[in-house]
Amino acid sequence: MHHRIAMTASAPGPHRVLVLGGGFAGVMTAQALERQLGKRRDVEIWLVSRDNFMLFTPLLPEVCSGVLEPRHVVTPLRGMLHHQSTWCITAEVDAIDTQAHVVTVMGGDGDPHRLHYDTLVLALGGITHTFGIPGLEEHAVGMKTLADAFGLRNRVIEMLERAELEDDPRDRQADLTFVVGGAGLSGVETAGELEDFVRRVRRRYYPKVGEAEIHTYLVELKDEVLAELPPEMGAFARQRLERRGFEVRLGTPIREVREAAVVIGEGEVIPTRTVIWTGGVRPAPMVARSGVEVDHAGRVRTRPTMETSRSTVFAIGDCALIPDVEDSYGRPFAPTAQNAVREAKRLAANVVARIDGRPLSPYRYRTIGTLASIGHHTGVGVVFGIRVRGWIAWFMWRGYYWSRVPGINRKVRVGLDWVLTALFGTDPVQLKVDDASSALGSTGRRRAPVRDRETSD
After folding, report:
1. CA torsion angle 404 407 408 414 (round to 10)
2. What secondary structure letter does DSSP report for 361?
3. What is the DSSP string of 416-434?
4. Which pLDDT value is given to residue 433?
5. What's the pLDDT band for 444 if we cut at 50, 70, 90?
6. Per-residue b/e over 1-33, b at no fewer than 16 CB within 10 Å?
7. How far apart are CA 236 and CA 389, in angstroms?
8. Beta strands in 117-259 (DSSP E)
9. Percent of the chain surpassing pLDDT 90
């Protein structure tokens, strides 16, 4: 049962838990609260999200390549939350006053609404970190939102279309060169899926474009690929990518992104009109303005129970620095979806414990493992301490994320998409948008820029 926002002042009634963020952390926390509360009516849950859906971000590269339909990797929030005391609110967070216990949001009507709370959960996630690289915001494509996936797909198809008409060798080279910035999990998975897509559609639909004309680069500031995995797994991923034609540049920064080129390393200029940036995420700026203690990067410092410096405020996901009580070096938990899902269960239990006056428990979790797809039905990973690679790792990667897709409805749709793509392939349909939305997607000759967009974790 869902209600429209109709109040601007606090009123006596149930204890109100306000969750900010409609990503993994926020939605899973709201769901876990519903399970914890059962049929209780003395607590109500309010979930505030910029979008009225949750995006399943691990499968975003497959949306870009056309393997998956966009609607199949998003799930409506109102279909995920069913408690009679749950409210779903589609709005932008405008201000957080932790002293007055008030959050101001901007709804679709363009007016501010003041939402009072008794307990606040910060799950605002992160935004793209551009590190001040000149031209990155104006000329690069991100891989963080559904609009980013559309923008990248449109740009790749546009480049292939242009290349078939281009006579100038340098312009043609810029059209057919694709550069991925960042060789972490997101960068490698995007690079692998992008290369698969370009090769497939070129072979079938663009006969005037020679295979040798397509150039792909993976540029990473660190000295290793997939730093999240053991070095031999990263070395295997690099070897496979290079075998498929990638030029992997490690220990190499991106210095500048131009309209038709990117400058890397010590001044090397690569002609390209497609730069995909996956190189960094930082906490949403709103978090640092919320009045809770944050670290130098703007992440909320929490106790192992996920409590913040404000007794009525908890934090979770990408925007939180949650200490691992079992780590001998005192390192925090990694900001991954795998952790966010499990953090949500402990956080919900702690919120209910706080309401009932019971002691809180610290979050404890040992990572099951990490898997990455590197395209071409190949993957790498570590599961329960066992290192896997090749086809079996890719199959496990798909199986794990398929099991995490919310709801049987979406699971069936994703599974059918995979089967149909395997049978019939993908096609180079360029879905253009109107001018008002073209900043988030490539239409005509406009860029699909990286922006410091707030995204829910």
Report:
1. -60
2. -
3. HHHHHHHHH----------
4. 59
5. very low
6. eeeebeeeeeeeeebbbbbbbbbbbbbbbbbbb
7. 8
8. 119-122, 126-128, 177-181, 215-219, 246-249, 254-257
9. 74
- Placement of tokens 């551009």 in the chain: 130
Q: Count CB atoms within 10 A of the CB of residue 384.
A: 8
Exposure string (b/e) for 142-162, b if CB count within 10 Å is 16 or more? bbbbbbbbbbbbbbbbbbbbb
Radius of gyration of the chain (CA): 23
Burial class (CB in 10 A: 0-12, 13-18, 19+), 306: buried
Instruction: For residue 14, list its beta bridge partners.
Output: none
| Selection from 77, 78, 120, 131 nearest residue 95 by Cα | 120
At a CB cut-off of 8 Å and minimum separation 6, what does 204 contact? 425
Cα(448)–Cα(158) distance, integer angstroms: 12
Query: Strand pairing partners for 47?
Result: 19, 88
Angle at 181 between CA 210 and CA 370, to 5 degrees: 105
Residue 349: helix, strand or coil by DSSP?
helix
pLDDT in tens, 38-82: 889 999 999 999 999 999 999 999 999 999 999 999 999 999 998
Q: Are 111 and 5 in contact (CB under 8 A)?
A: no
pLDDT digits (tens, 9 = 90+) for 386-435: 999 999 999 999 999 999 999 999 999 999 999 999 999 888 888 775 54
Write phi, then psi, for 207 (nearest 5 degrees).
Answer: -65, -20
Closest CA to 177 of 150, 138, 209, 145: 209
Lowest mean pLDDT among 7-16, 212-221, 304-313: 7-16
Helix, strand or coil, per DSSP, at residue 42: coil
Rounded percentage of the chain residues whose pLDDT exceeds 70: 92
Q: How confident is the model over 340-357, as pLDDT tens digits?
A: 889 999 999 999 999 999
* Cβ neighbours of residue 423 closer than 8 Å, sequence gap 6 or more: none
Residue 248: closest CA among 260, 236, 232, 230: 236
The one-character DSSP state at 4 is -
AA identity, residue 353: A
